[in-house]
Write a structure and sequence with these properties.
Chain lengths: 277, 288
């Protein structure tokens, strides 16, 4: 479990980026942290893997205080995939890039090879295994960065804006991969602005604004509340906007994903058809 | 779009293969863009969108090595023979990743960098930097270093730097990716205002159609280096919905919902692009 107890963080410039955050993340959790630009989302993520230490309060990763263990030790447990893939990539081939972390952790070559193959396959990168990461598109590089962290199977996975530059099919693939991870008992924390992705994945949502947690709950209830959503500079998912209008016909307001919308409208429209003489 | 507007981008049988790559990044591209158009360029990850944009401002073939075929004229200039310094007056490029674009010690210096290199007077540089900061709401950041900014702030500064060059064409490569939806909307609105007020031509690369649908009249869809659809956005969305979905284009969710209900035989007619259109069409079916 990752536990944040009364965590506040002030940058050397004096900016209070996090203010009294209390949070638990455990295996099997799927959490989306959302908030306006500059809300403190990335700062919060960096607290979880020890890259930043709290100014006040403490962060425990499996009962170990992040102030007392090295970032390298924490890296085995907590994998953080940065927003910008270029911060992470440096190897000559995609394969080497993904193997790098595993080599550092001292795995056997056979294990590394198998694990690299499996991860590349899962993220649709197999065809690029001998290509230089820098010849790939932005979206592809992003997936290589993700693969390099995923390969060592950390218990806690933190993804900073994982859907940037990804087309819809890649997002589907990512969604399935995340689903697989948390159903295996791993924790997945995703920082994102992508309301539509969140709407269709239905994680637990934590809304962060100006360094404070302002709302927590299931995606469909948090993302269909006008006041909350606009407070953190988000826009409601399209389905939620649509059902806001349709609620006067007795349809629920808290609809955020297209599949639930379809079922509800199928019922409603079949009903309407049946009553028309 | 007025009939009289001039063709500003013309590609004929354009192709490019990076040195060391197995397949061409783009091939057989025929594209004609007229002044004041607002174009959405989209397609699956790795389809060649960014490569096509790199051709527009001459990064290809001037900085990227490879095999070039065909012809590309931008603002009357042949891209293969013009230096990029000339092309940069014509085409402003906001990169996917703003960090790759910012390097000066302060935001203000970064925005001024382009105009300074044009050999303008101090007053003109001052005026351009001021205007660019106003449009992009970056004035409050002017003394900060680019690395102190959040991803979203960096993106706005990168846009300001491009605006200060007063180009005729602005290419925005996934400009909203690091932005929260409200800020993303502001950037799109700013681009559209520039188009209307200054007559600029805007090309936006974006996966999420819902963000751009309000502004772009025309959509160009690429797959495997080729253009596979090109036309009025609403029309392409309606007629080629299944193709777009299969390619992984992020069609607006209301369009997807409508297409599903249409398959079920519960609704008829054109796929809506906006929530408001879908809401009124569905409301009319529920008159109780």
């Amino acid at each position: 479990m990752i536990t944040l107890e009364h965590v506040s963080f002030r940058y050397p410039s004096g900016l209070l980026a996090l203010n009294n955050i209390n949070l638990n993340i455990q295996g099997g959790d799927f959490v989306a942290i959302m908030g306006e630009n500059g809300a403190g989302k990335t700062t919060l993520a960096k607290q979880m893997n020890g890259l930043l230490k709290p100014s006040q309060g403490r962060v425990l990763v499996d009962d170990q205080d992040t102030k007392k263990v090295s970032v390298a030790q924490l890296a085995r447990k907590v994998g953080l995939v940065f927003q910008n893939p270029d911060h992470l990539l440096f190897s000559e081939t995609v394969k080497d890039e993904v193997a790098f972390g595993l080599k550092n952790f001292g795995y056997q070559p056979e294990v590394i090879e198998k694990q690299v193959e499996r991860t590349l396959e899962a993220l649709g990168l197999t065809e690029y295994k001998d290509t230089s990461p820098f010849l790939l598109s932005g979206g592809e590089r992003k997936r290589v960065a993700l693969a390099s962290i995923l390969a060592s199977e950390p218990d806690y996975l933190i993804l900073d804006e994982p859907t940037i530059g990804q087309d819809y099919l890649q997002k589907e693939r990512l969604r399935n991969f995340i689903l697989q991870l948390y159903s295996q008992g791993k924790a997945v924390v995703m920082i994102t602005h992508d309301v539509e992705f969140v709407a269709e994945s239905n994680p637990k949502v934590i809304l962060l604004s100006k360094g404070e947690i302002v709302a927590t709950g299931p995606a469909d209830s948090v993302l269909s509340k006008d006041e909350m959503v606009s407070r953190v500079s988000l826009v409601k998912p399209q389905m939620s906007r649509l059902f806001g209008t349709l609620s006067k016909y007795g349809l629920p307001r808290d609809v955020v994903d297209v599949h639930r919308a379809r079922i509800l409208l199928e019922e409603k429209l079949s009903e309407a058809k049946a009553t028309v003489p | 779009m007025s009939q009289a507007s001039r063709e500003i981008i013309a590609a004929r049988n354009l192709g490019f293969k990076y040195t060391g790559a197995k397949k061409p990044a783009i091939q057989e591209i025929d594209l004609s863009i007229r002044e004041r158009e607002f174009i959405l360029l989209t397609g699956p990850s790795g389809c060649g969108k960014t490569s096509l944009c790199r051709c527009l401002n001459g990064l290809i073939p001037n900085f990227y090595q490879g095999e070039w075929t065909g012809e590309l004229i931008v603002g009357g200039l042949d891209v293969t023979t013009q230096p990029t310094s000339e092309l940069s007056r014509e085409v402003g490029y906001v990169f996917q990743n703003p960090e790759n674009q910012l390097f000066a010690l302060s935001v203000e210096k970064d925005i001024a960098f382009g105009p300074e290199n044009l050999g303008l007077t101090r007053e003109e540089i001052r005026a351009r930097v001021d205007e660019a900061m106003n449009i992009t709401s970056t004035r409050s950041l002017k003394d900060l270093a680019p690395y102190e900014l959040s991803g979203g702030q960096q993106q706005r500064v990168a846009l300001a730097g491009v605006l200060a060059m007063k180009p005729n064409i602005i290419v925005l490569d996934e400009p909203t990716s690091f932005l929260d939806p409200h800020t993303a909307e502001d950037v799109m609105q700013a681009a559209d205002d520039l188009r209307k007020e200054l007559g600029l031509t805007i090309v936006v690369v974006e996966h999420r159609l819902d963000l751009v649908a309000r502004y772009a009249e025309r959509i160009v869809v690429m797959d495997a280096g080729r253009i596979v659809a090109d036309g009025n956005l609403e029309q392409v969305l309606d007629e080629k919905f299944d193709t777009l979905e299969a390619l992984g284009v992020g069609v607006p969710r209301v369009s997807l919902l409508w297409s599903m209900l249409r398959t079920d035989g519960l609704v008829k007619g054109k796929v809506p692009t906006h929530v408001e259109d879908a809401a009124s069409a569905l409301s009319s079916l529920m008159t109780d």
